[in-house]
Structure formats: structure tokens, C-alpha cells
User: What shape does this take?
Amino acid sequence: MQFHPTSVAESIVTVSAPAIVAHKLNHYFGTGSLRKQALFEINLTIAAGEIVIMTGPSGSGKTTLLTLMGGLRSAQEGSLKILGQEICGATKHQLTQLRKQIGYIFQAHNLMSFLTAKQNVRMSLELHDEYNSTDLDAKATAMLEAVGLGHRVDYYPENLSGGQKQRVAIARALISHPKIVLADEPTAALDKQSGREVVELMQNLAKEQGCTILLVTHDNRILDIADRIVYMEDGRLVEG
Ligand SMILES: Nc1ncnc2c1ncn2[C@@H]1O[C@H](COP(=O)(O)OP(=O)(O)OP(=O)(O)O)[C@@H](O)[C@H]1O
Ligand SMILES: [Mg+2]
Assistant: This one.
């Protein structure tokens, strides 16, 4: 059963409300004569707890759509509801609040090189006031143990392999129990086995936490973890 919430209040009481609803979403880059449309009339509903993989050629608009959904870029035209909240025309403050409920995993893991694995993961909790009084080090260590890095908590990124760094990024994205995880080519830099391990890890942790995953990939070897696959071409979305 699916509900289509019309207000934030309603989305809180209806636990099965969709996590993401895009309706006739358009996006443009540039202004004046350089203005170029990157997304055309995107319609996409992702249920809470669903794992959706998005594929499609380079330049088709996947990252653009992901960054809009994550509140990393302002939505311009149409409707985009994330966790029941309309983000087309949302204020900076609303987008900041939204971003706290989302975990991001990107190809270039963006770990802080001057922080250890544990400090990188811990930093994600420090952004959340509700964790103020808890033992952040213990939580970060437990999360790193969950991704198989209990023996590397005090290592700096430069001393970790690509797969290990990606696991730290996953631990960092999931430790605050985000409602949505957005992942852009999380396995691109990894060999077949590490890539597989990393997505299975994401899948298991997400299922445990009941979070929704939208994952962009060119990697055919991981398509089977998805509940559904959608395809982007020339800025338009085609359900697979
Ligand atoms: N900041 C930007 N300014 C102008 N145009 C942009 C910008 N970002 C992306 N584009 C354009 O928007 C289109 C979609 O780009 P996007 O990065 O979303 O593609 P993608 O599907 O993620 O590609 P890839 O698989 O190579 O990562 C491309 O034509 C790109 O050139
Ligand atoms: Mg991209």
C-alpha cells in the first residue's frame, strides 16, 4: 500500500509514504543563450526501504538528478518531494535540515586525509546534536567493525586500499542511520570482489536500518541487488 503525502505532517504518520517522489522535474544548466536543459519531465517514485539502481550513458543526467534529490543543488522546476517535503523552492535552511537525513557515497570517497578512519566516521555524527551525549568513538568503532575494518580504525586514508576507503565512506554514510542513501558509482574504483562486497554491505546495512537506496552505476555485476532498475537517457528516465 502506498500513500502520497500532501504535507510533512502526514508523511510522519504514514510510515509507508514514499521516500522520493519526482514529478515533471526539469533542470537547466547555464543562463541566457548558454542555457541547456539537462533533465526533462522526470517522474520517479521510490518507496521507503526500496533499493533502486539507476544506469545510463555518460552525460545522461544521473549525477544531476542524484544531487537534486540530495538537496546538494537547488531544484528549479516541477516537483521533488524528499521524505514528504517539497524541495523545489526550499530555503537553504530546509535543504540543510534535509541533508542531515541523507547519507552520501560518491566514487571519490572524499575522506578527510588528515583524519583517521575512526575520526572520519565520527565526524558524520558530530553534525547531529542528538548524539552529543553519546560515546562517539565507541559508535564509530562499532560501525567500522560492521564493515570489516575493526583492525584499521586508527589508519589514515592514505594507508588504506581503495576498497577499504570505500568501506570507511559507507560507514560514514550509514552511521547516523539516514533515511535515504544516495550513492554515485560507489564501486567504480574497485575490483570485482571488493565492489561486490561493498554493495552487499550497503544492502545489508540498509535492510537492517530500513533505509532507501538510490545507486547510480555502470557496473552490470551488481544490478541484482536492486529491487528495481531505472534507465536514464538524454535527460529522460525510462523504467527498466
Ligand atoms: N555544473 C554543470 N554545468 C553545466 N552543465 C553541466 C553541469 N553538470 C552537468 N552538466 C551537463 O549536464 C548533463 C548531465 O550531466 P551528469 O553529470 O548528470 O551526467 P551523468 O549521467 O552523471 O554522466 P556520467 O555517467 O559521466 O557521470 C551533461 O550534458 C553535462 O555536461
Ligand atoms: Mg555522473
